[in-house]
Amino acid sequence: MMNDALAPDEKQREMTSSAPRHGFLLVISSPSGAGKTTLARRLAGEFDVRFSVSFTTRAPRKNEVQGRDYHFVTRERFAQMVDNREFAEWAIVHGNQYGTAIATVNAALADGEVCLFDIDYQGGRQIRQQWPAESVLCFILPPSMKELERRLRQRATDANDVIERRLATAHQELTHYGEYDYLIVNDKLDQAYAQLRAIYIAAGCARVRNDAMAQSLLREAAARPAAPKP
Ligand code: ADP
Ligand code: 5GP
Q: How much is the pTM?
């Protein structure tokens, strides 16, 4: 809010700092087990980003919490949401349905926030189609297929047949890496996280997201007395 008690120069500075912020949509995808949830949660823990909690028809894992990890819904409810056009994107992944609420995306962008998505390549593609200028797409690669399998097994959250299905789908998912802006190899977790963090920070500095700030500063500069002629 403008403060009338401020001197004209200070008023201008206040206007500059209140230039509208432009958020973006940070999509993180990978084959199951490569570490995207680990990396996404770490980023959400360090920075003020909104984690998009998806809707899914998958059954909750033993450590998952309704509303925190997913909104777990029945197939009927999911179908109803599709019919009501409540999803920005949705897809069938490993035999279950997953979707992102359009309200989550719209609210984050309206508030100038960064919204973080842990979704598959089908979802990433749909988000990019609808918000091309706002989308930043990162694909997480495991260091090897052997290590991917080891991680899926040691996570111990899925039955053997579910793990087999996820490993079998990994090849097909990997073929979509070319649709992404950034690739991160998640070998050493700290190094992979440092890379994701750098992408997040750089994406916030992109010119398209700071145009209002630059324009506001330009107006402030133009309003100052012209430099004396030499
Ligand atoms: P995704 O969300 O891609 O399915 P997760 O984040 O659940 O993957 O990670 C799968 C498993 O691998 C988890 O047990 C996680 O703790 C572990 N993990 C993640 N990154 C690494 C890493 N760099 N090195 C070793 N284990 C990792
Ligand atoms: P999981 O069952 O391991 O939590 O997730 C399985 C896959 O579904 C992962 O690739 C995850 O990124 C993806 N996924 C989770 N939520 C969504 C979503 O809302 N939309 C899409 N398209 N994929 C999702």
A: 0.90
